[in-house]
């Protein structure tokens, strides 16, 4: 198995020079381990003597949806506590009799639930976490379930609430106990981070309130509004932890411990679950841009500049972590880097 290490390094170095991101950490590998990895650029342009390193902590942003929500829902499904195709209202009293009661977990996992597309939690429901929960679980749908594939943060927020209801545990506790701890993902946790860990964290966007770049505090406003823990975002992680996680997805026997989810959940999630609807989706994962579902290369991104890819067919995985939000919210420059990186990692 070969990897275009020189070309990957050249690509990511160019991204630093072009100020797509201050720095990047990357790795590619298979079920046996990491086959190539590297780091480029700096942690913070204001501190040019601090290079980006393999153990840099990143705001995972929407990778939280996979690391915490998808993994926890998979564990509950494998335990028999959740039927993906039953209306939520049949077993969840909080949504029974409300529009969300007709939606299924599969609708949410495929972004076909018809839930509202924009967060706007504070504008709609204020700042009290219980008021927000009640509002989200009782609100009207944007369109009928199963009609269209439309990515929305609401899906993960609702599934996070569902996981808490079914397990009787907070989402951070559930993810730690059922996934991160068994797999040895010792540096993955929800924020806000303690000061000694935050110093190793890649800063993200400039916070207008403090006039400093966010570091160790979730960039996502909904996560901050909800105290740092929610299904949308809020987790922080490092390269090695994601490598362990992705190795487990390729071969569950590679880990010293077993996560709550196993091969059945992984297999179902990394196959098309949206029928004839476009764009195609699995369960929270989707085919990498520029590939066909038959290529079997699946991806999930995070808004801060994070991303991870997995291909059971090729037996390989890849991770690219950046803090592109330090500079800009503009998507296209990083999109171009990601797509080229994917092509080099999965030739």
UniProtKB/TrEMBL annotation:
Keywords: Hydrolase
Enzyme class: hydrolase
Bilayer-spanning residue ranges: none
One example GO MF annotation: hydrolase activity
Organism: Streptomyces hintoniae
Start and end residues of each Beta-lactamase-related domain: 9-333
High-level lineage: Bacteria, Bacillati, Actinomycetota, Actinomycetes, Kitasatosporales
Protein name as it appears in the record: Serine hydrolase domain-containing protein
Pfam families: Beta-lactamase
EC number: 3.1.1.103
